[in-house]
Amino acid sequence: LLTSGCTTEKTIKVGIENNFRPFTFTEGGENKGFEVELWQAIAQKANIKYELVPMENGELSKSIKSGEVDLAISGMTITNARKNNLEYSNPYFQTGLVILTSSDNVVIKGKEDLAQKVVATQNGTTAYNYASEIQGVKIRSYPNISDAYDELKKKNVDAVIFDERNVNDFSQNTAEGKVKIVGELLSKESYVVVANKRNKYIGRVNQAIEAVSKDGTYEALYTKWFGA
Ligand code: GLN
Fold this sequence. Notes:
By secondary structure, the chain is an alpha/beta fold. The protein has 2 domains: 4-93 and 190-226, 3-Layer(aba) Sandwich (D-Maltodextrin-Binding Protein, domain 2), CATH 3.40.190; 97-182, Periplasmic binding protein-like II (D-Maltodextrin-Binding Protein, domain 2). The chain has helices at 34-46, 57-66, 80-83, 126-132, 145-153, 164-173, 202-214, 217-226; strands at residues 12-17, 19-20, 24-27, 30-32, 50-55, 71-77, 86-88, 93-95, 97-102, 118-122, 138-142, 159-163, 179-182, 189-196. Strands 1, 5, 6, 7, 8 and 14 form a 6-stranded mixed beta sheet that branches. Helix 4 (126-132) links the parallel strand 10 (118-122) and strand 11. It starts with 11 loop residues before the first strand and ends with a helix. Glutamine binds at residues 17, 20, 57, 74-77, 122, 125-126, 163, 189.
């Protein structure tokens, strides 16, 4: 058996978004979240030494492509466009996008009601792509999703479109009852670990994802962060 002292493998850099609750976020100088803990378990199984590098979402893909970080984990959705540049692990989380509006908004009940409305979201995300394809919608896009939520709280925009679990987290913990989720899930998205094409880790990461799913680690973390 190898102990960590015997391995000469380098410590790799793993990029995370600094504000994607409850998956990865930085609070009081500490990196926290479901994926921070999931990654810790994966890395342990795969015998990967790593350090986390928190950054804004917009910097993540660039940092992977440039090799500044070796991998990224941060609610990254599989898309065809990204497949050209990036390599993916197997998916470990199924989710989708939702619409968030003001609690007293009686007009917006779903995607059909967004024509001529102002929708806020985060730059460079699947939510941005989705919103841009809705007929007649006016998009305000921010580097940080907190700014989109703030604008909705102040009623400067009509709605936010973003990843369901992050929207839930905001609406339950920060929104002071000022917002509500409306309609169905708009899309089906799978979250994956992302790497550049030159990486040699994805195979081991996939084996470790399977291992943490089989031994109950994944389920325990899921329950801790999302409830039963
Ligand atoms: N799932 C979304 C995407 O991949 C948002 C990810 C994020 O903001 N960290 O674009």
